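User: Can you help me understand a structure? I only have the sequence.
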Amino acid sequence: MGILSRFRDIMRSNVNSWVNKNERPDRTIDEYMRTLQSDLGQVKAETVAMQAEVGRTKRAWNEARSEITKLQRYAERSVENGDEDAALRFLEQKAARAAKEPQLKAAYELASTKAEKMSQMQEKLVADVRQLELRQAELKGKMADARAQQQRNEMNAGGTGLSSFGAAEAKVNQAYDEAMALAELRSEQESDLDELFAELEKQIAAEGKAEDPQQELAALKTKTEN
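Assistant: Let's start by predicting it. Here is the structure, written out as tokens:
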């Protein structure tokens, strides 16, 4: 599952570590932006692979269903022609394929669910990068203004300069806190994928039972005689 299974933990641990260790919000956001872009690259790569898996599992499931239908038709024709041995062979082959069909269906549904979640993660990461880019530009502009104000204050006499710079710095910290809130919002919005995947995988054992070829043959004979 790659980044799909570890994405939430990576984002949470990294954000908390950066908040605790860094005193410069502009540098912290730069690091966070690089990590977001790295994760986005992984998500894009795994999304392509997952979409290919969806296509593969769907073809396998469709082929199994088509084969089951074809074998049923062959069995009916054999009964109509009075060849019960051939009909029984076709029904036995049909039963074997029918026993595997629920597993193929469950594999397709699981791949589809994972692909959908990957797409949602990609959209969320793209939105986060865009929002952080705006916050980053705003923060850096305010930092530049704060430094310029500090220089002006240092050129002036009196203690008012420190107070003015403190106000500018407070605005910078506020912009930083808003940017970090974007990352924390992610962990609150993510669904519990593990439970969803486990539930889908249970369908493999729960769906369908193999049909009895002998009973099917008897039913076909009765249908033909009528």
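Now, to help you interpret it: Residues 3-126+194-225 form one domain. Residues 84-155 form the longest helix (72 residues). Let me know which part you'd like to focus on.
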